[in-house]
Amino acid sequence: MQFVSHGIDLVECERIAQMMGQYPDKFLARILTDAERAYVETKRHPVPHVAGRFAAKEAILKVLGTGWRGQISWRDMEVLNDKAGGPRVTLTGECARIAERLGIARIVLSITHTQNYAAASAIGLVGDGESSS
């Protein structure tokens, strides 16, 4: 696979905590899929996990080169953990269409967070999974 683009984002957890406090159901329903919400709600301290997914989705949009425009929705991107705990990205809707148009076959994602900050780095890859020489 070949590298296409990279995106990175940093979020202050306090900002997310404020949004969750002000608009708890509306905010989470807008930015998280049902499966993402079920995951973060299992956490004793969900804010850093919500912030991590927020940062991840911002980083993914940077990979796609779009920003927030057109028909893009927060829920067009889903970030769930695999069995080993690593984040996996699934795109749907407008984000999936843009990725296909760009030839992006996979987005590799890394998320980190502390009590105060969450960061994510995303890399868009093209190809059929075979390494190129």
Summarize this structure briefly.
With 133 residues, this protein is α+β, with helices and mostly antiparallel strands. It has helices spanning 13-22, 24-31, 34-40, 47-64, 93-102, and strands at 2-12, 77-81, 87-91, 104-113, 117-126. Helices cover 40% and strands 31% of the residues.
Descriptive account of the structure:
This protein has a 3-stranded antiparallel sheet. A two-stranded antiparallel ribbon has the order 2-3. α1 (13-22) crosses α4 (47-64). The protein is globular and about 40 Å long. It has helices spanning 13-22, 24-31, 34-40, 47-64, 93-102; strands at 2-12, 77-81, 87-91, 104-113, 117-126. The chain contains 5 helices and 5 strands. It is 40% helix and 31% strand. It has a single domain (2-126), classed as 4'-phosphopantetheinyl transferase domain (Ribosomal Protein L22, Chain A, Alpha-Beta Complex), CATH 3.90.470.20. The model has no long low-confidence stretch (mean pLDDT 92). The termini are close together. The protein has 133 residues and is of the alpha+beta class.
Order of helices and strands: EHHHHEEHEE
Quaternary organization: single chain
Low-confidence stretches: none
- What is the SS-derived class? alpha+beta
The count of strands amounts to 5
The tally of domains stands at 1
Mean pLDDT: 92
Topology:
Blueprint: E1 2-12, H1 13-22, H2 24-31, H3 34-40, H4 47-64, E2 77-81, E3 87-91, H5 93-102, E4 104-113, E5 117-126
Helix pairs in contact: 1-2, 1-4
